[in-house]
Design the sequence.
C-alpha cells in the first residue's frame, strides 16, 4: 500500500523538465541588439576556455624556463629564507 506522502514523492521524482529535450540549435533569427545588451548586463558573454588554458600553459613553461636558467639561484635564496624563518621561530622574546 502506498501512503499519500510517498505517492507525492514518487510523482515529484518522475517529473521531467521538458526544456532538457528541446533542441537549442533551431533558432533561425539572430538576437536583437536589446537582447545582446541585456545578456551583457547579466554577465552572459562568450568566454574562451582555450584562451585560459593557453595562458596557464605558457605560465607553466615560463616557470620551468625560469627554474632552468636561474634554478640554483632561486633554490639558494629559498634556502636562506628558510634559515632566517627557522632562526626567527626559535628566538624567545622576553
Sequence:
Amino acid at each position: 500500500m502506498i501512503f499519500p506522502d510517498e505517492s507525492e514523492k514518487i510523482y515529484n521524482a518522475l517529473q521531467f523538465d521538458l526544456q532538457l529535450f528541446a533542441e537549442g540549435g533551431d533558432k533561425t533569427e539572430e538576437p536583437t541588439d536589446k537582447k545582446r545588451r541585456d545578456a551583457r548586463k547579466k554577465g552572459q558573454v562568450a568566454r574562451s576556455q582555450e584562451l585560459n588554458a593557453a595562458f596557464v600553459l605558457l605560465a607553466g613553461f615560463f616557470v620551468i624556463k625560469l627554474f632552468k636558467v636561474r634554478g640554483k639561484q632561486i633554490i639558494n635564496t629559498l634556502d636562506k629564507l628558510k634559515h632566517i624563518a627557522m632562526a626567527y621561530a626559535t628566538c624567545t622574546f622576553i
Summary: Residues 49-90 form the longest helix (42 residues).
